[in-house]
From TrEMBL:
Pathway: Purine metabolism; IMP biosynthesis via de novo pathway; N(2)-formyl-N(1)-(5-phospho-D-ribosyl)glycinamide from N(1)-(5-phospho-D-ribosyl)glycinamide (10-formyl THF route): step 1/1. This is Phosphoribosylglycinamide formyltransferase. Pfam families: Formyl_trans_N. It comes from Flagellimonas sediminis. Coiled coil: none annotated.
Length: 187
């Protein structure tokens, strides 16, 4: 059985979508969800879905091997960033080469990098008059949003769209494609 660990910082809608997808695929299991925010809504979702969830602080993530050892103890096959906003430290990248993926709410290399997440991305897409946007699933390396691209999906941006409607279109692409790409990577 393949083991996934999800890292999330916020509401956890993508994490929940991944968890429910793999409940119907017993050969792949979400072993745990880790978060860097004590009040993250993803913790409530995990409780409801009966998935082990753990909080970690900045020190255990950046300045020690605590998180690396935890991930290794779970025999993690793939680490999935689902709305996780911290940069992954070198010790974790080294311990899991080409086994950490992220989803970005734009068509990289556009609108990527430090500080480009969520609403900020959709607002920039709108302000720059883009006619399309989408999602990028990519491997994680030592630089924000610069790892090798695994998959992209596009959606049209209409002149009448605002940042919220763009976000909704992008979320639909995330929900549709992220679990399938994870499944393909682990098959």
């Amino acid at each position: 059985m393949k083991q996934i660990v999800i890292l999330a910082s916020g509401s956890g809608s993508n994490a929940e979508n991944i968890i429910t997808h793999f409940q119907e695929h017993p050969e792949i299991q979400v072993a745990a969800v880790l978060t860097n925010k004590k009040e993250a809504k993803v913790l409530e979702r995990c409780d409801r879905l009966q998935i082990p969830a753990f909080y970690f602080n900045h020190t255990s993530f950046r300045d020690s091997d605590t998180v690396v050892k935890f991930l290794q103890g779970l025999s993690t096959d793939l680490i999935v960033l689902a709305g996780f906003l911290w940069k992954i430290p070198e010790n974790i990248i080294s311990a899991f080469p080409n086994k950490i993926i992220n989803i970005h709410p734009a068509l990289l290399p556009k609108y990527g990098g430090k500080g480009m997440y969520g609403e900020r991305v959709h607002q920039a897409v709108k302000e720059n008059g883009e006619t399309e946007t989408g999602i990028t699933i990519h491997y994680v390396n030592e630089h924000y949003d610069e790892g090798a691209i695994i998959f992209q999906a596009k959606t049209t941006v209409n002149p009448s769209d605002d940042a919220d409607s763009i976000a909704e279109k992008v979320h639909q692409l995330e929900y549709e494609h992220f679990p399938k790409v994870i499944e393909k990577l682990l098959s």
